[in-house]
Design goal:
6 helices; 9% helix
Length: 357
């Protein structure tokens, strides 16, 4: 998304070309909030940034857990490398690649962070639908990997996401390859339970490409809410587990037509949202808003969009280059991964709390 062409971004839904003529349908709740501007907006300057990790060759992703930053390295012997944000020092490698006990042939996904007393728990799914919990804090304190598998029987479902809400209740999503859809449910003690009033998300199907419906999510356990950002659509869906709240946020004046996006050639598909992360009073969504070609071949600017849990816009942080992910530490410092340059770097930006005041 190039900010000098911001009008283009807002008009994206109505200027797609080279797509087949298809029926019009949308994936949305009854209440739609259209967002064209934010109460606060700031552009990050190069002088505001500091390189904190530049020896991270092969890093494709990151997450921040309190005062620990974890880089993800898909080609390394260990998938995770943990660094202290207090002094930027390397602490240890975790999540070994392999086929043995507590080893993984592929990078785990659906990582969720939970802080409990003296524990910093990172839960995740393996590629064969097994659910693990790694105590990151204790692993670093003991200088050994503290990890265990929690036995969850998902049957033959193809799990996409799994996030613990408490010790026995989970938010899960699984994919159906027969009708190209994603189903969101709650899971407890071997049973799947419907989430009320989200049929408009669960019942929607596409014909061509399941990735049309791809999304990323974050949770707020205290509020019992989920925020989902769509990777190829200009929207965010927020809902509660008890069915009392549902809202769709549209970036711009018009929602993208799901049927049209599904029938577009890959060259014309837009890369919209890249991630979303939950914090106590708000969530932050990484927005690209560029063509698939520009996403992979250019250093197009992007933005970080802050919303409260009612779906109200708070802040838009304009980044003058592309980042692949970000995280905010306990003291409000933001860290961003830039990995589409000659070498991967992690950048620090230390102004988040003051911007939100």
């Amino acid at each position: 998304m190039k900010f000098r062409n911001s009008l283009f971004v807002l008009l994206l839904p109505i200027v797609f070309v080279a797509c087949e003529s298809v029926p019009t349908f949308y994936m949305k709740f009854d209440e739609v909030k259209y967002v064209n501007k934010f109460p606060k907006e700031k552009s990050v300057k190069d002088k505001d940034l500091q390189i904190v990790c530049d020896d991270i060759s092969g890093c494709c992703d990151l997450f921040v857990a309190d005062s620990i930053l974890v880089g993800i390295f898909p080609e390394a012997d260990y998938f995770w490398k943990a660094y202290s944000l207090k002094d930027n020092s390397f602490k240890m490698s975790l999540i070994r690649k392999g086929h043995g006990r507590n080893e993984f042939p592929y990078v785990p996904h659906s990582i969720v962070i939970n802080k409990r007393s003296d524990s910093l728990l990172c839960s995740f799914l393996s590629n064969d639908n097994r659910f693990f919990v790694c105590d990151l804090g204790q692993s670093i304190a003991q200088n050994r990997e503290v990890i265990k598998e929690q036995k969850l029987n998902f049957g033959n479902k193809d799990m996409k996401w799994c996030a613990p809400l408490n010790d026995s209740l989970f938010y899960i999503t699984y994919t159906s390859w027969l009708d190209y859809s994603h189903t969101r449910m709650l899971f407890s003690n071997g049973s799947f339970m419907d989430i009320p009033n989200i049929e408009c998300l669960n019942n929607i199907t596409v014909e061509k490409d399941i990735n049309t419906l791809s999304f990323l999510y974050c949770l707020n356990n205290k509020r019992s809410r989920v925020a989902e950002v769509m990777k190829r659509l200009n929207q965010i869906n927020i809902y509660s587990f008890d069915g009392s709240f549902q809202k769709t946020i549209c970036i711009g004046d018009q929602l993208m037509n799901v049927g049209e996006i599904d029938h577009c050639s890959k060259a014309n598909v837009m890369e919209c949202f890249g991630n979303v992360i939950s914090y106590s009073n708000y969530f932050v969504a990484l927005y690209h808003g560029v063509s698939r070609k520009d996403y992979y071949e250019s250093d197009a600017p992007c933005s970080l969009m802050f919303f409260d849990w009612e779906g109200n816009p708070l802040l838009k942080l304009n980044i003058p280059f592309m980042i692949s992910n970000f995280g905010i530490s306990g003291d409000g410092t933001m860290y961003m991964l830039r990995n589409n340059t000659e070498k991967e770097v992690i950048l620090k930006y230390s102004n988040i709390n003051s911007l939100l005041d």
